[in-house]
């Protein structure tokens, strides 16, 4: 049985640039580096950057993205830091909880989000998506 998300690996085209972004802009902790990669962390998250010559800088057209949590009190300063670093936004927030959708240097779609699954479900019960069903334990 699966017990949780183990790690994320992101293919990058320029390792020093990506390492600087995740370390200096997003404040992840660098755990290890090597010629073709790096391990970084946040509490509960292991992120691997892997140098890949096939990685392009354009984001995919679908909604696939990786969301990071942060507290509401930290949201304004965090988004201001991203904007000051000229980080590119890729979407406006359209759902519950404050969110800032942005791209990393390789076009990976990221999100900084205030809230969790519980707060999202509460909001969805008040205003459900088309065809939404809830599966409560009985």
UniProtKB/TrEMBL annotation:
<protein>
    <submittedName>
        <fullName>Fosfomycin resistance glutathione transferase</fullName>
        <ecNumber>2.5.1.18</ecNumber>
    </submittedName>
</protein>
<dbReference type="Pfam" id="PF00903">
    <property type="entry name" value="Glyoxalase"/>
</dbReference>
<dbReference type="InterPro" id="IPR050383">
    <property type="entry name" value="GlyoxalaseI/FosfomycinResist"/>
</dbReference>
<dbReference type="InterPro" id="IPR029068">
    <property type="entry name" value="Glyas_Bleomycin-R_OHBP_Dase"/>
</dbReference>
<dbReference type="InterPro" id="IPR037523">
    <property type="entry name" value="VOC_core"/>
</dbReference>
<keyword id="KW-0808">Transferase</keyword>
<dbReference type="GO" id="GO:0004364">
    <property type="term" value="F:glutathione transferase activity"/>
</dbReference>
<dbReference type="InterPro" id="IPR004360">
    <property type="entry name" value="Glyas_Fos-R_dOase_dom"/>
</dbReference>
<feature type="domain" description="VOC">
    <location>
        <begin position="4"/>
        <end position="115"/>
    </location>
</feature>
């Amino acid at each position: 049985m699966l017990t949780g998300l183990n790690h994320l690996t992101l293919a990058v085209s320029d390792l020093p640039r990506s390492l600087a972004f995740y370390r200096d802009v997003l404040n992840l902790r660098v755990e290890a580096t090597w010629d073709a990669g790096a391990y970084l962390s946040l509490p509960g998250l292991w992120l691997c950057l892997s140098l890949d010559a096939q990685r392009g800088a354009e984001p995919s057209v679908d909604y696939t993205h990786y969301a990071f949590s942060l507290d509401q009190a930290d949201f304004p300063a965090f988004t201001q830091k991203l904007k000051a670093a000229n980080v590119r936004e890729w979407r406006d927030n359209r759902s519950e909880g404050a969110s800032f959708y942005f791209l990393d240097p390789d076009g990976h779609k990221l999100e900084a989000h205030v809230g969790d699954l519980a707060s999202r479900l509460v909001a969805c019960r008040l205003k459900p998506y088309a065809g939404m069903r809830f599966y409560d334990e009985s």
